[in-house]
Amino acid sequence: MTSAPGLPGMPGMPIDARAAAASDNAEWCDIVCGSHGLTGRTDADAWSVSHRSPQWYPDAVTLRPGVDAVTLLARIDAGPGASVKDSFADIDLSGYGFRVLFEAQWIHRPPTAPPVDTPLDPVTTADDLAAWAAAHGGGELFRPALLTNPRVRVLARHDDRGAITGGAVLSGDGQYGVSNLFTHTDRPRDIWRAVCATVPDAPLVGYETTPELAPALETGFLPTGPLRVWLRARTAMLGGIGTDPAITGEPPEERAARPPQ
Question: I need a surface site. Which of 101, 119, 140, 165 has the fewest CB within 10 A?
């Protein structure tokens, strides 16, 4: 990965590391949307879909710093429920009815010696994917078309009885994005270690919110910079008078019973 000047106000923070993670994440969002019949658009500024993305997924992901907010919002259905992943945490959408849903850190792990652990098992059939999705919590969000995409690897960990106890998704080729990591134990670091053991020679990228960051860092990931997800709230009405914005449903992005990745 080539070096790049630091971001404004963040000396030494490489743009390339964040841009690579954002690009991989945008590709994963495009793959999921495509499996739901939605066509995405990608250019130098952003990835986006013009119709509402599936639950937990953003309607746009910025791919460089300094994207114009008005131009970006014109690409999506910016009504209530719209969400934008601000990959460089440098866009202010508060004047357009959005609020910051959460902040997180992009992370990167170079292809160094992986931790000693058992690799995760590939999920290869529609029935196995349904079981994985049920364990994950995403249900019908994950469709069999994902299994035919050569740039997607759905991975599971099983206990001695064959029950799924955790898993993750790898997307990309050469450099992989880690998403949808989950566990039904109290040791998420074990799944992070198993992901690294599954592709021991590959660089890995992803993102985590602060409460979920420590297990990734303990596995050799490094933070590379902040991002934000903006959400336009659905405003409840009572007697014709608007109340405080109320979030309905889960946050956007690839999330089940954990913060988005």
Answer: 140
In angstroms, the Cα distances linking 256 to 5, 29, 167, 249 are: 36, 15, 12, 11
Residues 6 or more apart whose Cβ sits within 8 Å of residue 10: 225
Closest Cα to residue 159, out of 187, 198, 126, 130? Answer: 187
Contacts of 17 (CB under 8 A, 6+ apart): 1, 106, 108, 205, 224, 225
Q: From first to last of its 261 residues, what are the pLDDT tens digits of the chain?
A: 333 333 333 333 345 889 999 999 999 999 999 999 999 999 999 999 999 999 999 999 999 999 999 999 999 999 999 999 999 999 999 999 999 999 999 999 998 876 778 999 999 999 999 999 999 999 999 999 999 999 999 999 999 999 999 999 999 998 999 999 999 988 999 999 999 999 998 999 999 999 999 999 999 999 999 999 999 987 633 333 332 222 323 344 433 333 343
| Inter-residue contact 89 to 103 (CB < 8 Å) | yes
- DSSP assignment, residue 148? G
pTM above 0.70, yes or no: yes
At residue 233, what is the residue type? A
